[in-house]
Structures are given as structure tokens and as C-alpha cells.
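Give me C-alpha cells for this 406-residue protein.
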Amino acid sequence: MMYLKIAWRNIWRNRRRTLITMASIFFAVILAIAMRSTITGVFEKMIKDVVGFSSGFIQIHKQGYWKERSVDNTFEENDTIYKVLGKEKYVTGWSPRLEAFALASSGERTRGIMIMGVYPGKETAITHLVEKISAGRFINDSDKSIMVAEGLANYLQLKVNDTIVLLGQGYHGSMAAGKYAIKGIIKLGSPELNKSMAWLPMACCRDFLSTGNRLSSISLLLTSETRMTQVQKEIAQQVNTEKYEVMNWKEMIPDLDQFIQSDRSAHIITVNILYLVITFGIFGTILMMLNERMHEFGILIAIGMKKKILSFIVFIEIILMAGVGTLTGLAAAFPLIFYFNRHPIVFTGSLGKAYERFGIEPVLPTSLAISNFTSQAYIVFAIAVVLSVYPFYKINRIKVIKAINS
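Here you go.
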């Protein structure tokens, strides 16, 4: 305790030097958290946009459905699966879907699209579609109208209350054709999905496809993606796997998973370079502090203070400065990250177009995951702790006369 008091008093004897040292750690923490949160935020956004609106984090469908994705390979809706899902504590919601491909046309323009029949209340609880309406209103169960993605509406030159014509193949080769008034226009984050999605109420979609009481799949929302494999195994043990198939998004969209994994590997190099820069920055401030205090150290050793005790006190000083710098950096980083989470940077021009060519919304969001803050604070603090061992080496090699005359 005595050494702690001495160390605390020592660091405030020269406020300028102390503040410089703390500032180096303070900005290192903010920079590390900002980079980590941005990288994680981009991946979270990508997964949310693509996975949430297409496959779901986990999907239950008929055996072999994902290979063909045909309306003929659907299954009868029943309560058995719903009872199983109701017992899963990590499943926060699910959305039954009836999916099919169709041609959408208006005037002389035509485009192939994905039609998704949904229960509006359950679907928006999973994908929050109601929050993404850019024009019009959200559909309800009894509607005979449709919602279309904004990019599709722009291409077909349609707006709310205009009519869209759908042509496709229904159940067992039947002809699917219908005209629907547009009730709402949805703006999706993924540029590719934004050009090719449309939603019908489940009853209306079943009439269009002549499927009766059938579903293509049930998409699940989880409390955390880290529980995905566990939940998938638990559900697979409780359903008839000869009839149903339980798949996670990584199995359904392996290209996206491989892209994210390769991108993460590339970012490891960038992050390690950042840590190297932080290490040299902190070490430089520690070296400056030691060199400025050589005369002081020489006097203390000359009047009888042991080098080991002096080294230990300086070690405590650096730990205290690192702790204060880390905590203040952590506190300052949160509002910054929170702001850019709510107001992400939007890329325009050629950079924005480059993002869209890869099917990614041209925005740079940040992640609010607590692990991004704590892990980076721990790493920067650990770097400072490791570097604080250097004073032991430096002080034990001091030549008293040389130090006094410095």
C-alpha cells in the first residue's frame, strides 16, 4: 500500500509527462476499439442483410429442398415443428415462408424475382420489415396486395397503388398468374435483394401458387449466432430428419461464409500492424519518461534506495497510468461507436458502386458488441503491462554517477 501511494504521488509530480503517457494509451484504446467495432459491424450488417431476408440463421425445410428450391418440394404446415421450436430457449422467433421464383412485369419491363409468402406479423418480428418501408404501408394477413423491394419498384417504374403482374409455375406444374396492387415499398440493405424481392400475405401467396396449406421453410431467429450450431443439433434430434432438413446459414450460403472468413483473415494483418504501432507508441512514452527521470533515479539510488524497490515503484506508476488511460479510453470510445452505429458512414461515388457490385450495402456501420470494447481494452492494457517490465532492465543497469550528471 505504501508503494502504491508513493507511485500515485510520483505520477502527478509531473502532470505534463503523465498526461502524455496516459494520452498515448487513451488514444490507443479508442483506435483499437474503433477498428474492431468497424470490422465486426461490417460483417454483422452483411449477415443481417443477406441471411436475415433470405435463408434465416437456421432453416427447417423438406429434405432436399435447398438443392432445388422448388415449390413442389414443400411440406404441409403443422403444429409439430412449432411445438419443438417453442421449447428452444435460444429461439426468439420464427417465420413460416412460402417461396417461389416468378416473372414480375409492368408495361414493357420484366424481371425475375423471388416471391415470398409470409405471415406479416411473424415475418416483421424476424426481419423488422415494417421499419424498412420507404413508401406505403405494411401488408396484413387478409390483404390481396403485395409489397415490393425499392430497387424492383424503381426498375419497373412502379409506385404505391400501381399494379404489378406476376407469372410463374405453381404447385405440380400448375400455372401461376396474378395482378396485385402495391401496398408498400421496402428498402433492403443488400443491393441484390433490393432488386429482386416481393412479399405476399401467406393466404394470397398460396392462392397464387395453388399449394394449399403448404410451406417452403421455417426461418428462425436466435438470441445469439454463437448458439446456432447448438440449436441446430437440438432441433435435428427432435424432428423427423428423414422428412425434414435443419440447416444453418453457413451450410445454405457457403460462398458468403467463405467470403467473410477470407476477409477476416486479411483483417488480422491490419489489426496486428495496429497493435505494433500501439506498442511502439506506448514504449516511446515510457522511454521518454525514464530518460527524463534519470537524474532523479541516480539521486535516489545514491542516498540508499535499492534498485529493485525503485524499479517496482516505477512499474506500479506505469500500471496506474495504463489503467487510467484504458478506462478513460473505454469510456470515450462508447459514445463514438454508438454514434456511428446509429449514423453509419455512407459511401458514394465509385467506392459506393464497388460495394454494390459485391452485393453489399455501401455503408460502414459499427458494432456495439461488448466483446469489442472489453477485448481491445484488455489487449492494449496487456501491451502496456508487458512494456512496463522494461524499467526493471533499465533501472538495474543505471550507473549512479552518470545518472546524477544527466
